[in-house]
Amino acid sequence: MQVLYPDKNINYSSKIITSYPRTTINKNEVSSPIDKKGAFTVPFPNNSSDSNLIITLNSNRNEYIHENIYINRLLHFNIDKITTDNENIIGELIIEHKNLTNVGKAYTCYLLESTSSIRTDGTDLDKMLLLPEQEVTNMDITLDNVLPTSSDCIIYDSNTNTNNKINKVCVFTKPIIVNTESKSKILKYADQTTLFQINPSNVESFNGYKEGAQNLNENTTTMVPADNISVPDNENIWIDCNPTGVGEDEITTYNVPINSKMMKEEQESQLMKTTVNYGMFLIALVICYALVPLGYKGMVIDPVNLIKDEHLTQKNGATFGALTRIRSADITISLIFIGIIITLIGLDPSLHTYGRSSALFIAVFYLLSFGLIQLKKQQSEFMTTSSPSEDTQPIVTEYPDDKDKESTTPDLEPMDISDYGATISIIVVFLIAHGVKVIAALIVAFLIVLLMSGIGIVTDLGQGVWLSSLIVTPLVYIIEFAKQVSKLKQEMS
Description:
Layout: E1 15-18, E2 23-26, E3 40-43, E4 53-57, E5 60-73, E6 89-99, E7 105-113, H1 124-129, E8 138-141, E9 153-159, E10 166-177, H2 180-186, E11 221-224, E12 229-230, H3 248-251, H4 257-306, E13 313-315, E14 318-320, H5 322-345, H6 355-376, E15 384-385, E16 395-396, H7 417-433, H8 435-454, H9 461-492
Parallel strand pairs: 1-12, 7-10
Antiparallel strand pairs: 1-4, 2-8, 3-5, 4-5, 5-6, 6-7, 9-10, 9-11, 13-14, 15-16
Helix pairs in contact: 4-5, 4-6, 4-9, 5-6, 5-7, 8-9
């Protein structure tokens, strides 16, 4: 295998111009294999007379128009310090071009990279991969909005199997980010192609460029710097026309089927987004009203009432100091939510489109839950911990009534830093004490995910392990916490 070096053979006189405006592709022409024996394939015709790719090497200028799109698993795994060092580069987008003078084809190859985090937002490339599953007959894609900018390009020649023609292969070194769903599909495509070779196959491909070099790579590849790669300039104007300057009331006067279809799809998309957001808001309200008080009582109120130590002592049948401990728990929960919200806001918007919207949703959820809990705390039933034995009285912790002149000294005292420290120490000790069980559960979960990956149920091992850990870790701690509360009740009885 010959390694491609992106930092060698830089040709500052070379130039590449690309233009991939909006093009319509048809669903019935798409081929999307799932057995790793082929590539995602769809015709990509150029219905204009304009060139889509212009390559100038050593004063030789060739123009091409695109005709097909292919998507494979990673083909060029031999690019030094790029695909050789980055396991997240999983595939390639290949655009096939034919030469206007019939001297050979050109293939532009764009690396596809996935991220370790879950991404659901999609570009035209992600939407194209989902086309076979959509209830549409065709779709418009604009690759100019997807392809990377400021990317170097390695060019080499590859012999074709017919007519002894030489094809140009252009590999752009800056990857395109794809979402999680696209990643799972790309991993089902083949990692080999018959279109070209992944290594230079013609020593004389560049008409003597660096002729006489001893290293085979040095006279069979050319690296075009990013500054020499551009879209068409003023001498080659590319226009993608659509009626503009009108509003929704006037757009219906144009008898253009594609626009009416686009308008309908846009309205359906907006309606779907509104419906989903409204549904999530209703679900949040239901969770806040039904589950949050129940969970708060089981995880804060009852354990605090059942704790018997020097910080929470029994006095006149009531738990003295319980409200102070509850307040410390509230502060801890608030800090956790604030930390999550700040983390989501700080994520890179280009990689995590829904980070800030998720932060807003969690903030609203927290505020609704906080208000509801404060109202529930005014109810004696909510602040009462029942006893498992009839011989033991229930433990009641109530907020003092300001209107009751005969009330005793309020249980809720000014902020006690020592109590907050004690609360944090209890949480840390609990997490450490059950850490071994969590690790054991994670190992079992990893083995299950590994087994599911082996039989093809899980396509992304890393994502599967990450999701399983997010589920298993809190689940184990919740189970152990419930056991701890049950043990306290048994001791009380």
